[in-house]
């Protein structure tokens, strides 16, 4: 006999539900043996988005099987509330904020690198590689693919809601509380390598005549050897950095 359960998603998790199911209890019939993780993900909410689940007021882990008549409440990551008596399902924070991004988030990857964050991204990376890198390198998986975040091996991930790049940047930094960790112009935008100062005479043979004439301060990527300087593009990038910082101060 199927079990009849009531499910409520709290706050921002409603964004992941179909419009007709947001902001109200959802009544479902599920097979015996269904876990709360299965239940949430069947409705489109990846486990990486969930911090606390209550069944009839009791805090439970993902493996808890639902029973007939259960009332399930699913909570997102708490930003400021003390929930220490509860079973926290959001995994222990990683030692440092490093990311791996899916193929559709290339512009976001470049922007996060600009802000100083370690981001793996390739335009040919597969879903299997994304999941493996996230686990092996302890990186937060950023994606717009819910199915990818539902993979059991993925423990640290986030479903990017916004489609506009600047809003995506603010969304990710807010979710992981990283506005204070911004350290711009320290990474290669193309390959993610660390930028290091380099003497002009070491790279001037690679510079265009006008660049060699007008600029004296250079950095080079420790990985791909790309050269950076404060050319005409710099003001545009610096403006983006300031806009991001301003967004952080406004929150």
Features:
251 residues; alpha/beta; Ubiquitin-like (UB roll); five-stranded mixed sheet; four-stranded parallel sheet; 20% strand
Model regions low in confidence, pLDDT < 50 over at least 5 residues? none
Strand content: 15-25%
User: What structural class do helix, strand and pairing data support?
Assistant: alpha/beta
Number of distinct beta strands: 12
Question: What do the pLDDT scores average to?
Answer: 92
Query: Helix tally?
Result: 8
Our Rg estimate from Cα atoms comes to 22 Å
Which outline best applies? elongated
List the helices and strands and how they pair.
Blueprint: E1 3-9, E2 26-30, H1 36-42, E3 50-55, E4 58-60, E5 71-76, E6 98-101, H2 106-114, E7 118-120, H3 127-136, E8 140-143, H4 146-149, E9 157-159, H5 165-175, E10 195-198, H6 200-203, H7 209-214, E11 218-221, E12 227-228, H8 232-250
Helix pairs in contact: 2-5, 5-8
């Amino acid at each position: 006999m199927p079990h009849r359960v009531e499910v409520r998603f709290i706050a921002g998790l409603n964004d992941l539900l179909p419009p007709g199911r947001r902001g109200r209890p959802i009544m479902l019939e599920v097979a015996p043996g269904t876990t709360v993780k299965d239940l949430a993900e069947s409705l489109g909410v990846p486990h990486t988005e969930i911090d606390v689940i209550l069944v009839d007021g009791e805090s439970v882990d993902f493996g808890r099987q639902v029973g007939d008549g259960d009332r399930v409440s699913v909570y997102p990551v708490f930003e400021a509330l003390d929930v220490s008596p509860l079973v926290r399902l959001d995994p222990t924070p990683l030692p440092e904020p490093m990311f791996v991004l899916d193929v559709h988030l290339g512009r976001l990857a470049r922007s996060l690198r600009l802000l100083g964050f370690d981001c793996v991204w390739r335009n040919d990376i597969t879903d299997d590689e994304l999941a493996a890198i996230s686990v092996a390198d302890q990186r937060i998986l950023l994606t717009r693919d819910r199915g990818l975040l539902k993979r059991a091996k993925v423990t640290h991930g986030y479903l990017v809601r916004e489609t506009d790049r600047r809003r995506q940047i603010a969304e990710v930094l807010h979710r992981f509380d990283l506005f204070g960790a911004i350290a711009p112009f320290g990474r290669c935008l193309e390959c993610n390598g660390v930028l290091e100062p380099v003497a002009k005479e070491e790279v001037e043979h690679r510079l265009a005549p006008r660049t060699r004439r007008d600029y004296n301060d250079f950095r080079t990527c420790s990985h791909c050897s790309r050269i950076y300087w404060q050319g005409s593009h710099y003001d545009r990038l610096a403006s983006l950095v300031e806009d991001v910082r301003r967004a952080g101060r406004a929150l």
